Write the structure tokens for this entry.
Amino acid sequence: MSKTQKQPLVVKPTVAESPKKDSPKVESPKVESPEIVAETWKLVQDIATSEIEVNGRMLFLFRNMIEMYDENLLDISLYFDKTANDKSELSLFYSVDGKRKTFMPSHYDRFVNLVIIPALNQNLLDFRKNNEYEYKALQAVCPAVLFGISERDNFEIDTMLSNPTNPKIPVELKLVWDIFKFGKDIQESDFRKNLATKFLTEKQHSKDYWATFRGDSGVYEISRSYFQPLKVNDENAKNSKKSDFSKALEKLNDVEKGVVGTRQSLTQGKGEIPDNRRANEVKEIKTMVFSFIQLLSKTDSKKAQSTLLEIYEYLVTTMKTENFKKNLPIVVAKNVEFDPKIKDRTFEINKSSNLIKYINNI
């Protein structure tokens, strides 16, 4: 074949492509919650609803008791001994010297037994035995009833309770500011001021306060504190000296109950589990110690800065122990010194030394 002769054109057969098929969709199987989960959640909701209802009923019970008092159906005189000369309401709440009386659980029980139960036309004999839960309800409402009697002028029967239409919103009792208002009488003013300080924020002062029956600032707690004036005063005095941060640390360091105070050592033993636990404990301690030192160092206070010196002295003392030398022998090998120099003289730190005192006296 000559060079000029053209080669025959060869056509390659085409292969028909198979049509693309969509990949079948794989639906994730629906995971149905076991029936017990739904039942448990329903139970939680029912309990919450019941709690709201019960708290509301306790306030309705309180209101009814105050109405009974208004209609002279609560005979206060029955509370006193037969030999008592003064059986007035004033004598119920105040001692002869004009100071507010402190009520304990025994006083509330006495009021329930001798005043409330007879007023309900019930026989005191075996009442507690045959009506255990009814008695508990009366015990719970009693402090509020006495509180209501003592502050009767500050409660309006028709408007004292809220009337929520939403079943998830609890009934509340209106506590007017006059209950907490500081008056001219120094003793009484201090008492009410302490009560307001314990339960109300400063923004709530001079305003009416609505309270549920239960809760940290509920009617039950306010009523009980109302009849413990000295305790409220002492608590406020302590709170004024201790911040929430200080109180939290105090709980940690408590030698009887505190997580830190009751701890004598880190996790002991050898092996993967104790080693890991110990390593994590050391890590968290390091984080906490560094945080505390940083807080002290940033505090513009002589006490805070002198505490850093105390920590330093305590730290040097511990770095001279055999346990420290045994676990860090390089410190001994390199002859590392931790004692400070003061005016070119080495001050030896030991268990009986006092670095701050030495510095102040030289």
Summary: The beta strands are 173-175, 209-211, 341-342, 345-346. The chain has two domains: 35-241, 266-361. DSSP finds 14 helices and four strands in the chain. The longest strand covers residues 173-175.
